[in-house]
Amino acid sequence: MLTMVGSCERARGFKATIFFVALYLVALGSGCVMPNMTTYGADQFSGGGAFEKDAKRLSTYFNLSYFGFCAGELVALTAMVWAQTRYGMDVGFGLAAAALGAGLISLVSGVVFYRNKPPRGSIFTPIARVFVAAFTKRKQICPSGSSNPANGGAGDPAAPVDDNFRHANKFRFLDKACIRIAPEPDTEPESPWRLCTAAEVRQAKTLLAVMPIVACTVVFNTVLAQLQTFSVQQGSIMDTRLAPGSSSFAIPPASLQAIPYAMLLALVPTYELLLVPVMRRLTGTRSGITPLQRIGVGLCVVALSMAAAALVERRRRDASVSGGGRLSVLWLVPQFLVFGVSELFTNVGLMEFFYKQAAAGTMQAFFMALFYCSFSFGFFLSSVLVSLVNRATARGGRRGWLGDNDLDKDRLDLFYWVLAGLSVLNFFCYLLCARWYNSGAGGDPDEASSGEVVSEDDDDGKGLI
Predict the structure, then answer these.
(1) Are 417 and 407 in contact (CB under 8 A)?
(2) Which end of the chain is more exposed for a tag (fewer CB within 10 A), N or C?
(3) Over the chain, what is the mean pLDDT?
(4) In this predicted model, which residue has the larger pLDDT, 147 or 112?
């Protein structure tokens, strides 16, 4: 807590309680808003017309949605940082509260125009029923070929085959949840915890199938965590003047994170207006390139961001240790620019991919929540990785690469090379996971890339989008 004389005093008692309650409320609010807002917006564009038209509109929506997200991040990392630095944290938090209030008013003002889906219950209950039923019938012989019940319709476990479901031949042990045991006389029908519908099995299979894709995005978010921590620390010991050698405007190190978002504000319209039409003609895919291809491009490019960061840090460290002066903070721009390109492909592709995995509103929100869970896992892995690297490189009484808390003594450049290597390895793992995910796919390339699942209410032949 900042006192009137400018010194920092530790908050205690009631003040500390208020502070931590506020932090937990921010986390709770973000957890509720982020996945549901994106999904709710996509619901307004799906199902209202021809499949091809809706697919194009949905892809455009995700691009525009991320454009708005980047605009908000840019304002937060520039104007908000400036206000907090100049006028204090209380003013900064007040402006943030006012912006949230304005957003709430804007949301409520259009409530009569929104397309609303009725609640369909928890997504965890039917998935749990599938695993319980499959376990209780683990000794049953799973049907094969055309009698595979997991390829059937929604409401009847013994419904006809649906060859369009890509994961029909994966996780075959779950198909046993659809096996109907011949009832004995005077016995009640099997409960939903022992006999599941084919649609419930498809949902469970889809959840298991997307988990490797989610896992492959964790390293990407670990790189993001490093750019938001070590890169800011680098900027604090570099020449932050906009024009080195003069007394011009100084760039706040925390505002360096705004560089990729500023770039994305230009890249998103360029991607939507120029690249998508060209790729649509070349590939015949409605969205230009499929979501999985888009994710793959982003995961490949992120390794270049870490390579650029390692080269810049080596140059900065050599100049500082040899007495050559401080490098300009603008040397950090390339790594942020490259990461901005990676983020355009990876994050927007992930949002579109996860949305297309489910048909029920609750399923869509759940998969979108996985997208944001990947951020959490990435930041957690970042802390674990720093600790592991320090332990592995601490030898002969010397601290590890990042153990001195002094970038001139630490070897942050080598740590960046480790992240670049992990990113390359992660990219090849993703290629294997994406290939496995697409195995068994056929027909339209868009449908093959998205892997839509048919819900119980959508088994009338209508597609998800």
Answers:
(1) no
(2) N
(3) 78
(4) 112
- Rounded to an integer, the average pLDDT of 366-389 is 86
CA angle 59, 200, 360 (to 5 degrees): 35
Bridge partners of residue 239, in order along the sequence: 328
Q: From CA 163, how far away is CA 304, in angstroms rounded?
A: 41
Tens-digit pLDDT profile for residues 272-302: 788 878 888 887 777 778 888 889 999 999 9
Amino acid at 152: G
Q: Would you call 2 helix, strand, or coil by DSSP?
A: strand
- Spatial distance between the Cα atoms of 254 and 264, rounded to a whole number of angstroms: 18
Q: Which CATH class for the 14-116+217-458 domain?
A: mainly alpha
User: How is 234-297 classified by DSSP, letter by letter?
Assistant: HHHTSB-BSSTTS--PBPPGGGGGHHHHHHHHHHHHHIIIIIHHHHHHHH--TTSS-HHHHHHH
Which tokens go with 59? 């892809």
Angle between helices 13-43 and 51-75 (to 10 degrees): 150
> Are residues 453 and 464 in contact, defined by beta-carbon separation less than 8 angstroms?
yes
How far apart, in whole angstroms, are the C-alpha atoms of residue 423 and residue 301?
9
Distance from C-alpha of 237 to C-alpha of 233, rounded to nearest angstrom:
7
Buried b (16+ CB within 10 A) or exposed e, 25-53: eeeeeeeeebbebbbbbbbbbbbeeebee
**pTM of the predicted model, to two decimals?**
0.77
Give the dihedral sign, CA 210/44/447/424.
negative
Segments making up each domain of the chain, as ranges? 14-116+217-458, 124-205
| pLDDT tens string 241-253 | 776 666 567 777 7
**pLDDT level of residue 424 (50, 70, 90 thresholds):** very high
pLDDT at 6 over 70: no
CA distance 132 to 290: 35
Residue 109 has pLDDT above 70, yes or no: yes
Q: Is the pLDDT of residue 459 over 50?
A: no
For the chain, give the percent of residues with pLDDT over 90: 12
Structure tokens at 144: 């094969």
**Which region holds residue 216: left if phi is over 0, alpha if psi is between -120 and 50, else beta?**
alpha
